[in-house]
């Protein structure tokens, strides 16, 4: 659902979504997330994915939250992987809080989040390829961060990096629920290591994007970084803003988490003005089952055009 001032900007940015680009490097991709929270949503999601399969897309990205926090079982992970593999397009997934950090909750079985994250890696991130019937090979953060005594943090195989038509895409494991901080020493240490790894991975993508052939940079993750009581994402926000300044080309920041589909410009400069080349896209979320088609057109000065597709509203019982 697009609300308030964000709706006005979205209308401006999406107004040409029906125009077919003619540039030979133009393409489109899909963004979805925060869905399959219950069996009825699962049915709607599978129906939606069947429709997405008929679209002309280079790939689809799911920005996480695939369980609704109702359970964190191996059986559910396996079912979600089967659903993702039914995508006709390459499907790239980055984890959300529901499927690992929130697994400590009673309704989720009071499971160990760190053990669940390792299991997610085994199920969804076992190689360098996307999910889906047609697979996409990507760069993977599969090396640990070295310290004086060897491997200090990582690796982080869920973090991916790929390029299409001069546009660079990077996924980061940044979940909601305060980024897995404030629980105990072990989880705080996990968050520190992951934050460092995310920072290094984004820096690598930014350095590559400073090259002259780059048309744009897309950063994809799960958390809404403005939605934090403890400022758990401040360092990330600063790095994203600095990245846009360095790249000097359109930067698209994509997330889920707060279930409010919108396209806007919440990043501000020191004078309080929107950073002109940095746009935020948040995808649909439960109970709204939908996705956003993003068209990449090198002939468009903004590069990106947005076409939100609401498939179904599945109200809770």
Instruction: Give the N-to-C terminal Cα separation.
Output: 20 Å
Q: Spans of 5+ residues with little confidence (pLDDT < 50)?
A: 1-17
Indicate the mean pLDDT.
92
Number of strands: 14
Q: In percent, how helical is the residue content?
A: 25-40%
The H/E string reads HEHEHEHEEEEEHHEHEEEEE
- In percent, how much strand structure appears in the residues? 15-25%
Q: Quick one: overall form?
A: globular
Q: Look at the helices and sheets and give the structural class.
A: alpha/beta
What does this structure look like?
The protein has 317 residues and is α/β, with parallel strands linked by helices. It is 29% helix and 23% strand. A hairpin with a 2-residue loop joins strand 7 and strand 8. The longest helix is centred in the middle third of the chain and has 25 residues. It is globular and about 50 Å long. The N terminus is likely disordered.
């Amino acid at each position: 659902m697009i609300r308030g001032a964000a709706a006005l900007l979205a209308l401006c940015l999406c107004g040409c979504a029906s125009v077919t680009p003619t540039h030979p490097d133009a393409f489109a991709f899909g963004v979805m997330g925060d869905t399959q929270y219950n069996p009825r949503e699962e049915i709607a999601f599978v129906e939606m994915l069947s429709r997405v399969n008929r679209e002309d897309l280079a790939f689809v990205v799911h920005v996480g939250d695939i369980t609704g926090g109702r359970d964190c079982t191996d059986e559910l992970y396996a079912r979600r992987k089967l659903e993702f593999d039914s995508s006709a397009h390459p499907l790239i997934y980055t984890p959300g809080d529901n499927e690992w950090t929130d697994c400590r909750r009673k309704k989720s079985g009071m499971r160990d989040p760190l053990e669940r994250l390792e299991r997610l890696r085994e199920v969804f991130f076992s190689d360098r390829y996307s999910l889906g019937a047609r697979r996409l090979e990507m760069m993977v953060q599969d090396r640990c961060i070295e310290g004086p005594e060897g491997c200090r943090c990582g690796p982080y195989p869920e973090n991916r990096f790929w390029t299409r038509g001069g546009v660079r895409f990077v996924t980061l494991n940044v979940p909601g629920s305060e980024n897995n901080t404030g629980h105990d020493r072990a989880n705080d240490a996990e968050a520190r290591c992951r934050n460092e790894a995310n920072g290094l991975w984004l820096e690598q993508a930014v350095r590559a994007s400073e090259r002259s052939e780059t048309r744009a940079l897309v950063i994809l993750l799960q958390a809404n970084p403005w939605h934090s009581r403890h400022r758990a994402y401040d360092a990330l926000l600063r790095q994203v803003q600095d990245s846009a300044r360095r790249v000097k080309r359109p930067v698209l920041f994509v997330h889920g988490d707060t279930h409010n589909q919108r396209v806007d410009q919440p990043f501000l400069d020191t004078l309080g003005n929107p950073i002109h080349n940095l746009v935020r896209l948040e995808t649909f979320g439960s109970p709204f089952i939908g996705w956003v088609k993003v068209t990449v057109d090198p002939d468009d000065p903004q590069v990106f055009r947005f076409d939100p597709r609401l498939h179904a509203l599945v109200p809770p019982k």
